Amino acid sequence: MxxxxxxSSSSSRFPVADLSLAVQTRxxxxxxxxxxxxxxxxxxxxxxxxxxxxxxxxxxxVTFDARGHGESDWMAAGADSASGYHMDQFADxxxxxxxxxxxxxxxxxxxxxxxxxxxxxxETRPAPFRALVLVDIxxxxxxxxxxxxxxxxxxxxxxxxxxxxxxEQIAAYLPQRRERKSEQQLRPLLREGADGRLRWHWDPALLxxxxxxxxxxxxxxxxxxxxxxxxxxLLLSGARSDVVSRSTVDEFLQLVPHAQHxxxxxxxxxxxxxxxxxxxxxxxxxxQSLAPLPASRRVAGAAPSP
Length: 306
What we know:
Elements: E1 9-15, E2 20-26, E3 33-37, H1 48-56, E4 60-64, H2 87-99, E5 106-110, H3 112-123, E6 131-135, H4 143-154, H5 163-173, H6 183-186, E7 190-192, E8 198-200, H7 205-208, H8 211-217, H9 219-226, E9 233-238, H10 246-255, E10 260-264, H11 271-274, H12 276-289
Parallel strand pairs: 3-4, 3-5, 5-6, 6-9, 9-10
Antiparallel strand pairs: 1-2, 2-4, 7-8
Helix pairs in contact: 1-12, 2-3, 3-9
């Protein structure tokens, strides 16, 4: 990797089919390129520590808010189930961002972001990614763990009275974290409504439509796509995860026999947040192990770089 102790960062808007995404690029001239895709209900802020460290190591690191999340656009108000949020929209957005990079990126995808990476890497030729880092996600997952996440997302429809209230609820949900989030850390995660209440940064319509049920129906497609992945793969799982289990990991390794697997002993499903240093070390090790990119693939699609 190229060494650059002065990695810069810039924010931009990236147009997709029907809206625009908030994108942050660290060390834009660095190499290799890493594209980070967060999980359902998260933002690009989930990657802050890892992306900053990898940018300091000389990597081009691109993080973004998925549609309906964070600072990216939401679907038009009143959208019905036919025009609301769908998995293929998220996949298309990710494909466009990958094509906009100066070289096929290494995708680092957590949860939903990893599922999108599996589909695109298996179904698209040439593969849009140089390699995949899947963060605590496999084509089949433990339903109870996902239900716990959704229950938390749905638990506070009226929002929070203040940042201290939000921090308390998050601490109860993530008891493995030693420190509570500060107001500064929470500001990117919450929006203040006209009533003064603080609500999550994501569009409530994400839960109101068919998106969650649609992801369950994706499982056969994900398993089929996984068998066609021909790029290097690293699966990082949390030993304390309730979303990924030994059985789902073993099944994935049978589908993708060339994949590497590393289990982080102190992490739950929120791997990067629970064990950021260990997570970053494993990503660096994997990136450094990759063979040089062939000259024929050093320039990706014709889309402009964000």
